[in-house]
Amino acid sequence: MRKPVVGVIGNAHRVENRFQVQMVGERNLRAVAEVSGGLPVMFAGSPDITDIAALLDTVDGVILTGARANVHPTRFNVDPCEKHEPYDIHRDEVALALSVACVARGIPLFGICRGLQEMNVAFGGSLHPEIREIPGRMNHRMPRLENGDIHPDPTVVFADRHDVDLTPGGAFATLLGCEKIRVNSLHGQGILDPGKRVLVEGVAEDGTIEAIRIAEAPTFALGVQWHAEYDPQHNPINRKLFEAFGEALVARQKAAA
């Protein structure tokens, strides 16, 4: 049997402030290849050159990765604000439609950070543009130096920052074999109101939603707010997630054979 093919969404980026490119972080690609056992293939987060139906005829699963850009507020009926930029409206259009299509067609879907947020919005949920501004919430953004620069040490940036309580007996608790985990945190936006089919299965100690699944999805349809692609070879939580995604890929292949 061939390796399962996994579509990994691209992000809009400009090189040297001149050349428009689509970009995927290598950690995502390696997590798919080295832990899920799949063949990662980037697809463009641009609706004019991405045919979702054709894409889903080609891949065995989809990963919606994290990204610098926020989901545009008009997607959940909120006015945009300059301080919450940048946005990536083209990726929004692809990712939201793709989330619904994957679930409808029984194609494994794994949303990471922005990907979790996209899944929530796709099913009618809303986001808060800056979780840390809600009273009682912690700063979930990545660690920075005193001068505002991103911390240069990735082990600091991706270090575990807070606990997440998992729903007893839920998909995550069953998959991970525990009801409390500790995860990294690198996000500004977060779920405010869950979508109609979005089941909350993990909540941070400050009340921030960290893990979701789509109700009645026929296969793997999970989202996490943390960056699960970080070091899944050695991080047991992230490894189990990507292994489970890989098992869903193989099951999908067999069902389609």
TrEMBL record:
<dbReference type="InterPro" id="IPR011697">
    <property type="entry name" value="Peptidase_C26"/>
</dbReference>
<dbReference type="GO" id="GO:0005829">
    <property type="term" value="C:cytosol"/>
</dbReference>
<comment type="function">
    <text>Involved in the breakdown of putrescine via hydrolysis of the gamma-glutamyl linkage of gamma-glutamyl-gamma-aminobutyrate.</text>
</comment>
<comment type="pathway">
    <text>Amine and polyamine degradation; putrescine degradation; 4-aminobutanoate from putrescine: step 4/4.</text>
</comment>
<comment type="similarity">
    <text>Belongs to the peptidase C26 family.</text>
</comment>
<dbReference type="GO" id="GO:0006598">
    <property type="term" value="P:polyamine catabolic process"/>
</dbReference>
<protein>
    <recommendedName>
        <fullName>gamma-glutamyl-gamma-aminobutyrate hydrolase</fullName>
        <ecNumber>3.5.1.94</ecNumber>
    </recommendedName>
</protein>
<keyword id="KW-0378">Hydrolase</keyword>
<dbReference type="InterPro" id="IPR029062">
    <property type="entry name" value="Class_I_gatase-like"/>
</dbReference>
<dbReference type="InterPro" id="IPR044668">
    <property type="entry name" value="PuuD-like"/>
</dbReference>
<dbReference type="GO" id="GO:0033969">
    <property type="term" value="F:gamma-glutamyl-gamma-aminobutyrate hydrolase activity"/>
</dbReference>
<dbReference type="Pfam" id="PF07722">
    <property type="entry name" value="Peptidase_C26"/>
</dbReference>
